[in-house]
Q: What sequence folds into this?
């Protein structure tokens, strides 16, 4: 878990990310749309269980924290299951990132403090020392690493969801050839299916039939209503969708490899950068991060980053 930058939805990942503007890419859309879509379709957002611990710090807090005795994190709680308000609009922040941030703070024997901001305010908040780090679904890109440090925390990539009766038919990407697939409009996931058309042709198979929708929630409806046989989403979002539509949707594992890494961001060359990298490594080794992932309905192997 070494230095190295969101995706609140792209993966949604849009093909042309900016230093800041692509994060809540892994977001189901922009904040208001994400909340509305999830409330409409992915009902049942509930707070994830807090990570278990011994209640004792296992490492000394590093120097340089913005507030003594506190680890301050910039966060935009608009994307379940990574970060979201447990009651929908305010109050406690739940999700993998929130729970992992609390575990990191506890590891150092300090309190976790969340500085809520919009997505566009995450990096400025970090650079102006409003917070010590960003723990908020940002993926590690060259553009971000040019202006900040990051420590890898999670692997992400595209995943296929389908009805339980048919999910087992999709084992490789070529198994999508000739089938109807829903994707969010103008996303990298949609582009991936478009690119797959040429691969299918070369393999002597029919092209996949891609239908794009403005909202991620609409891709779910397309499968539930039988308009599409499968949908493509990030593995993080896909796991949550399946958990909220149990018996109706399931993830077809291993169709695409994980190709994106999420990171915890710190200021460039800040003393906190190596400290956070080491702490995340220790929390991975002792199983804390895997448990937090599982508690948040995610595949525990997504935290197995280099």
A:
């Amino acid at each position: 878990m070494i230095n190295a930058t969101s995706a609140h939805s792209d993966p949604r990942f849009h093909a042309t990310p900016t230093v800041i503007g692509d994060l809540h890419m892994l977001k189901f859309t922009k904040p208001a749309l994400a909340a509305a879509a999830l409330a409409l379709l992915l009902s049942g957002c509930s707070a994830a269980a807090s990570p278990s611990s011994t209640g004792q710090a296992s490492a000394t807090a590093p120097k340089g924290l913005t507030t003594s005795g506190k680890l301050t994190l910039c966060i935009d709680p608009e994307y379940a299951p990574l970060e979201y308000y447990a009651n929908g609009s305010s109050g406690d922040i739940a999700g993998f990132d929130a729970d992992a941030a609390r575990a990191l703070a506890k590891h150092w024997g300090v309190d976790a403090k969340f500085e809520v901001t919009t997505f566009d305010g995450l990096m400025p908040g970090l650079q102006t020392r409003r917070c010590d780090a960003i723990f908020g679904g940002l993926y590690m890109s060259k553009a971000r690493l040019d202006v900040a440090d990051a420590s890898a925390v999670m692997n992400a990539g595209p995943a296929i969801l389908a009805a339980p009766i048919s999910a087992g038919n999709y084992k490789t990407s070529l198994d999508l050839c000739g089938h109807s697939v829903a994707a969010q409009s103008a996303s990298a996931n949609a582009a991936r299916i478009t690119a797959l058309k040429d691969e299918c042709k070369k393999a002597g198979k029919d092209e996949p039939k891609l239908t794009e929708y403005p909202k991620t929630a609409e891709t779910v409806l397309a499968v539930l209503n039988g308009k599409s046989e499968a949908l493509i989403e990030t593995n993080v979002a896909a796991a949550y969708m399946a958990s909220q539509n149990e018996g109706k949707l399931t993830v077809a594992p291993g169709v695409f490899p994980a190709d994106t890494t999420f990171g915890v961001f710190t200021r460039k060359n800040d003393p906190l950068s190596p400290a956070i990298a080491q702490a995340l490594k220790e929390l991975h080794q002792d199983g804390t991060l895997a448990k937090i992932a599982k508690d948040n309905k995610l595949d525990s192997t997504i935290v197995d980053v280099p």
Observations:
- Confidence is low (pLDDT under 50) at residues 1-56.
